[in-house]
Specification:
two-stranded antiparallel sheet, mainly alpha, about 550 residues, Membrane-bound Lytic Murein Transglycosylase D, Chain A, about 10% strand
Amino acid sequence: MPKDKAVPVRLLWSLVIALFIAGCATAPSQTPSSAAGDRTRSDTLTGADPSAVGQKTAPSKPQAESTAPITNLWERIRLGYAIPGHDNERVSRQLQAYAEMGEYWERVSERAEPYLFHIVEELHARDMPMELALLPIVESAYRPFAYSHGRAAGIWQFIPATGRHYGLDQNWWYDGRRDVIAATDAALTYLAHLNELFDGDWLLALAAYNGGQGTVMRAQKRNARAGLPTDYWSLDLPRETMGYVPRLLAISEIIMQAEDYGIDLYPIANAPVVDVVELEHQVDLALAAELAGIDMETLYRLNPGYNRWATAPGGPHRLLLPIDRIAAFNEGLAQTPPQSWMRWERHRIASGETLGEIAARYHITVADLQAANDINGHIIRAGDHLLVPVASRPAGNYTLSAGQRLAATRSTPQDGRSRLDYTVRAGDSFWAIAQRHDVGVRELARWNGMAPGDTLAVGRQLTIWTENAGSGNASGLAAIRSDNRLQSVTYTVRQGDSLYRIANRFKVQVADLQRWNGISEGAYLQPGQRLRLQVDVTAQSNL
């Protein structure tokens, strides 16, 4: 090397020493924590004895630099923790309760399997804390058909107004609050908005998700006026909200150290087990299940947003299907003409009928009726025919449709009580009916798959489980349930039959006929369909 380009030895030693000092300054001073990034869990639960609730230290996670793929979705969630915990009595109390629930954790994690990967992927895409993937455990225990006394529905438990605000349609055919794909998008958008509203404080955002942002803000203002701190732990909030955030923190701790608590989590792979198939038209769910090679219960649990026997006429038409059944479904669908995706009924227009009346009868919109029949305006003529979509299978085949779920709920026996069926009258309310029959308002609503705040339509049938079934507006069956004159009869539906006509023929109530056969309100009978009846043999002349 030419002399004028040589580096002096002293300068070389200076460079070596400088690099050594810089390396020491940037070297980690401790093992990375089990939470995301370099955040530790020392502010949550400290100590080493698993039996000392509230006194645990989270185990360290693998080095962030590791290139080994994460195959366990629970581990991926653990590595993404980013919400600061808190070591106090409220968290400890919840942790103690959850740690003692044993088999519950296997059940809830098994229920979460179809949806959890999608939720984790969405959280990752939005750079949000992975603890939020556990929030549906607090809200619904990952039960897709959960419905609370506060009128909240789905795994994220949206109330009607908030659901509509975040774009979740709710109609006779479809409830977006139960659609896991749509509701997850809405829930994470809502949570992100709350987090921003409360300056990045996830604890306050979570409290607002449960109790409402106005409730949390008012509590903060009260504390500020009194010269008190305005963080979540210092606020005086409704009882449910006071326990809500500690529940999530306790669940996070359980998931973090499941083995130490003796908890068996159902193993979930860090890979999708279901995927979305987008369809262009309305499709009968029984046909979809048949093409995919799955049972109806599985189809409904993956697509709990659909209330009836088909996707909604106006959409969405997407289906969530097991990933290993999608190829077979697509192949079968390609061989099925679009006009066969639904069964159509020819409706003869009666004199004076309007499109609105016909649409209401079949529970579709006027726009859907117009589109199906290529009608531009509202003018129709008596004697003409309209094509209307109807179910291709008997109502009982659609196992988890809204009508079937309601029938099952109403038929669930209550220990030590007898059932009677009550028809809602003008001026009735849950409170008035409950008082009249000496039952609780929430009980009455729960027996009928409703919430106390739901509207009661005149003529609606309610089930009441009471210790005195002989009073009130009981149906014929409820009043003579123990009478040995009752006989089970099977009837085959004929052309032109209706529920009213059959009920009148056998001198039973329409409501009983629906209940015995799991037929929802508004459903139509089909020739050849077999119905089961319980009839009074002494009152029949046609048996």
